[in-house]
Amino acid sequence: MVILTLEGQTIHQRFAPVDQFRLEVEHFAACIRFGHQLHLSLEESIENLATIEAIYQSAGYPWPIE
User: Fold this and answer.
1) Partners of 11 in beta bridges
2) How many Cα neighbours within 13 Å face the side chain of 28?
């Protein structure tokens, strides 16, 4: 569930669960098979991976990881 407050009004939005890994693999396969463009650039993917690694590293630490 996502909860947003806009202009003093709270909005609750529910989304159906999805298998994100499956969606990523299907998108990647479609890009290869049909020549579609990837949703994220290589640079964006690397930045996302760095963020995920920092989250894992900082999970047990009381200070931020850069």
Assistant:
1) 4
2) 9
Exposure pattern of 41-50 as b/e (b: 16+ CB <10 Å)?
Answer: eeeeeeeeee
The pTM of this model reads 0.51
DSSP state of 13: E
Q: What are the C-alpha distances in Å from 60 to residues 20, 55, 56, 63?
A: 26, 10, 8, 9
Which residues share a beta bridge with 52?
none
Q: Which two tokens stand for residue 25?
A: 């693999």
Select the more confidently predicted residue: 64 or 1.
1
Identify the residue whose tokens are 């994220």.
40
DSSP state of 22: H
What residues form DSSP beta bridges with 12? 3
Domain boundaries, the chain: 2-58
